[in-house]
């Protein structure tokens, strides 16, 4: 399925799907948001990087056929899931944190809280626990009955993507240039692999030379971290304060210290540069735009039949009539 047609279906579905609501579980599972937050806090204590990984799940889930937790499904004999997609394999991690949240929720409110909603709540808490904004999330999503590695490969951008490609992608989902730049600020926390940047360091655009946009001293640092022919699974910080959600990410872009090509290009392209400059100077403006973008992205729905999985990695066992009743 083409990315453009997928985006069209998501926008149609968003207009026709049941509305998402704040406090959706206030009666059926009033402790839901507290349980998610407590598990996220424990995960953060155990490994600080894990919350940054979980935060990115919302983007990787919602852009591929809507926010339906399809990205959490394991492969089956008849289905290649999204965990093995190009943008996810050896990149996304900490799936076990979502599994821990689901396990705790099933103890208290069995069969009630969807994995798709867990992703959205966990992403919000990852930001807040790292020093960023806290916002009220809209809930009520269903979990998908399938996943598509092909759709993920066709939709999700590469770390090599430039701002023009990213603008086109976000526009398809009715997300603005401001949303693109603000949501890219998710890279305020976490790390990236050398695999994602070696081309920038040694062969940008096939020139056999480094990306001229990289600040020279920062390039020397990256050269040491990611030598040509070295271990491409070594990780580096995405900004100078990788455990704190702040606007230092944008300050780094202005200074030529963006880790990923898809980050630095936001400053080199005139269409996105002004928002980078604004957010580098005004952290509150960044926080407000980020929250707005996360809420808009969280509204993407496919309109397909769904369920409340009891295990986020596999679909429930159904008779055909059961699926129809839950759609």
Beta-strand level of the residues, as a percent range? Answer: under 5%
Count of extended strands: 4
Q: How far is the N terminus from the C terminus?
A: 22 Å
User: H/E series, N to C?
Assistant: HEHHHHHEHHHEHHEHHHHH
> What general form does the structure show?
globular
Largest beta sheet: strand ordering: 1-2
Give the low-pLDDT segments.
319-327
What is the CA-atom radius of gyration, in angstroms?
A: 19 Å
Average pLDDT level: 91
Helix content: 40-55%
How many distinct helices?
16
Biggest pleated sheet: 2 strands, antiparallel
User: Structural class, from secondary structure content?
Assistant: mainly alpha
Catalytic activity: 2 a phenolic donor + H2O2 = 2 a phenolic radical donor + 2 H2O
Cofactor: heme b; Ca(2+)
Function: Removal of H(2)O(2), oxidation of toxic reductants, biosynthesis and degradation of lignin, suberization, auxin catabolism, response to environmental stresses such as wounding, pathogen attack and oxidative stress.
Family: Belongs to the peroxidase family. Classical plant (class III) peroxidase subfamily.
């Amino acid at each position: 399925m083409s990315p453009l047609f997928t985006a069209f279906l998501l926008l149609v579905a968003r207009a026709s799907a049941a509305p998402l609501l704040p406090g959706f579980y206030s009666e059926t599972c009033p402790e839901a948001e507290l349980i998610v937050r407590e598990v996220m806090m424990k995960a953060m204590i155990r490994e600080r990087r894990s919350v940054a990984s979980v935060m990115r799940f919302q983007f990787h889930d919602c852009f591929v056929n809507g926010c339906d937790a399809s990205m959490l499904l394991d492969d089956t004999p008849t289905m290649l899931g999204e965990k093995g997609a190009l943008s996810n394999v050896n990149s996304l991690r900490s799936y076990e944190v979502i599994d821990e949240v689901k396990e705790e929720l099933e103890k208290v409110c069995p069969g009630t809280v969807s994995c798709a909603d867990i992703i959205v709540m966990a992403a919000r808490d990852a930001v807040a626990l790292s020093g960023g904004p806290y916002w009220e999330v809209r809930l009520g999503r269903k979990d998908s009955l399938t996943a598509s590695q092909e759709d993920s490969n066709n939709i999700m951008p590469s770390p090599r993507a430039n701002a023009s490609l990213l603008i086109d992608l976000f526009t398809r989902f009715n997300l603005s240039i401001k949303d693109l730049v603000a949501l890219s600020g998710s890279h305020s926390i976490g790390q990236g692999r050398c695999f994602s940047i070696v081309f920038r360091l040694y062969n940008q655009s096939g020139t056999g030379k480094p990306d001229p946009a990289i600040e020279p001293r920062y390039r020397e640092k990256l050269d040491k971290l990611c030598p040509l022919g070295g271990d491409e699974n070594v990780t580096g910080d995405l900004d100078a304060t990788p455990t704190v959600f702040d606007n230092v990410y944008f300050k780094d872009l202005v200074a030529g210290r963006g880790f990923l090509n898809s980050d630095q290009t936001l400053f080199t392209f005139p269409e996105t540069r002004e928002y980078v400059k604004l957010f580098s100077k005004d952290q509150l403006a960044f926080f407000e735009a980020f929250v707005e973008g996360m809420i808009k992205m969280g509204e993407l729905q496919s309109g397909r039949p769904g369920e409340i999985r009891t295990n986020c990695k596999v679909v429930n066992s159904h008779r055909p009539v059961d699926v129809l009743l839950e759609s």
